[in-house]
Amino acid sequence: MSNMITNGSKDPDSLLPTEGWDGKQALADPRGIPEVEAAIVDVRPLIAGSGSPIETEPTGG
Predict the structure, then answer these.
(1) Which terminus, N or C, of the chain has the lesser number of Cβ atoms within 10 Å?
(2) Which pTM does this prediction carry?
């Protein structure tokens, strides 16, 4: 996994924290770990309603 700060391609003034994964399995592997599940519950309200995927351009990380 890598973390990146990206700009939204439609709004160059936006900054979007982004996670990059090596594949679907790498994203799925941590599921089931109690601490990971608790973190998902905590952040779910923050990402609810975010809509469809956003195209980004990596700018650093």
Answers:
(1) N
(2) 0.48
- Provide CB contacts within 8 A for 53, sequence distance 6+: none
Rg for the chain, CA atoms, rounded: 13
| Number of domains comprising the chain | 1
Nearest to 19 by CA among 48, 38, 47: 47
Is 4 in a helix, a strand, or coil? strand
Q: How confident is the model over 8-30, as pLDDT tens digits?
A: 767 777 777 777 777 778 878 88
CA gap 13, 38 in Å, rounded:
32
Its domain, for residue 51, covers 2-60
